[in-house]
Every structure is written in C-alpha cells, then in structure tokens.
Amino acid sequence: MSDAADHTTLPYRPCVGLMLFNAQGLVFTAKRIDTDIDAWQMPQGGIDAGESPRQAAFREMKEEIGTDSAEILGESADWLRYDLPADLVGKVWKGRFRGQEQKWFALRFTGRDCDIDIRTEHPEFCDWRWSRFDQLPDLVVPFKRDLYRAIVREFTPIASDLAVSAATRSNTGTI
C-alpha cells in the first residue's frame, strides 16, 4: 500500500526480539548498517512460515550475530508492538506492514565474545557492544522506545537475578 495515510489498515509483521545477557548482566546491542544515526538495538527479526517463536529466536540470533550459543531464561507474556513512522511505512518491508508485533526472549549467552561475528551472510549491523540493561530504551530509535521500556520492565527480575549472580561470582573470585 503506497498511501501512508492508510498505513493503519496494514498488518503487523510477526517477529521475535532477543535480549541476550552476558555473564556480567550486560545486554548485546548492535548498530544497524543501514542508518547514519547513532542508534543501537537488540537482535530481532521475522518469524518464518511454520516456525515457532523459539525456533525463530535462535535462527535470527545465528543469522544476525553469527552464533546461537544461548539458553532461554524467559519469554515475554504478551506480544509487543511498535508502529513505523508514517514516512517509513512505504519504504520498509516493501510497504506490506505498519510495524512489528514481537515475542521477546531473554537469553543467557553461553559462548565467548569471539563467537560473535556480525559479518554474516546478510549483515545487518556494523558494530556491536555489551550495554547496560537500564540504558536500553535510550539507545534505540525513538519509535521503538516504548516497546523497549515495556520489555525492560518485564525482564527486570531476570536482569536483577543475573546482576546478583555476577556480583556473587565477582566477590567469590569465580568469574
């Protein structure tokens, strides 16, 4: 649909989002390759036909960051949505969707940093880093901030448990 005024009649693209925690309780974020703005995001992507959200999460992780070395710690209770700004609706996803409806997963990274390779077959990112959990909404493009705030609120218990575990390991010298 080319008329941006009619974008509210378009469906949401079914997707997954991944909050990947390292052993220190930091979260994987990456800078998109297709933008000049200093915006970072967590991995996310579409769910293929016949694929469960969990299967999509691990496939997307492998496709976007070159590894699927992780275990699921939690899953969002609901599907979360964001709408694209009207000026992007006709440009993104061939104009077929108004935004994304995402099932989010909190995962523990079980690999090593050297296992991460954003130079994948179809690269989406030009840089990556581990970011503080509480800073995630401030890192992302403005139209995704409400979604990021919601998922940070929902995954706060997981992040808190990981922070306690990391502090305990640090205090006992087992990191």
TrEMBL record:
<feature type="short sequence motif" description="Nudix box">
    <location>
        <begin position="45"/>
        <end position="66"/>
    </location>
</feature>
<dbReference type="InterPro" id="IPR020084">
    <property type="entry name" value="NUDIX_hydrolase_CS"/>
</dbReference>
<feature type="domain" description="Nudix hydrolase">
    <location>
        <begin position="11"/>
        <end position="153"/>
    </location>
</feature>
<keyword id="KW-0378">Hydrolase</keyword>
<dbReference type="InterPro" id="IPR022927">
    <property type="entry name" value="RppH"/>
</dbReference>
<comment type="function">
    <text>Accelerates the degradation of transcripts by removing pyrophosphate from the 5'-end of triphosphorylated RNA, leading to a more labile monophosphorylated state that can stimulate subsequent ribonuclease cleavage.</text>
</comment>
<dbReference type="InterPro" id="IPR015797">
    <property type="entry name" value="NUDIX_hydrolase-like_dom_sf"/>
</dbReference>
<protein>
    <recommendedName>
        <fullName>RNA pyrophosphohydrolase</fullName>
        <ecNumber>3.6.1.-</ecNumber>
    </recommendedName>
</protein>
<dbReference type="InterPro" id="IPR020476">
    <property type="entry name" value="Nudix_hydrolase"/>
</dbReference>
<dbReference type="GO" id="GO:0034432">
    <property type="term" value="F:bis(5'-adenosyl)-pentaphosphatase activity"/>
</dbReference>
<dbReference type="GO" id="GO:0006753">
    <property type="term" value="P:nucleoside phosphate metabolic process"/>
</dbReference>
<dbReference type="GO" id="GO:0008893">
    <property type="term" value="F:guanosine-3',5'-bis(diphosphate) 3'-diphosphatase activity"/>
</dbReference>
<dbReference type="InterPro" id="IPR000086">
    <property type="entry name" value="NUDIX_hydrolase_dom"/>
</dbReference>
<comment type="similarity">
    <text>Belongs to the Nudix hydrolase family. RppH subfamily.</text>
</comment>
<dbReference type="GO" id="GO:0019693">
    <property type="term" value="P:ribose phosphate metabolic process"/>
</dbReference>
<dbReference type="Pfam" id="PF00293">
    <property type="entry name" value="NUDIX"/>
</dbReference>
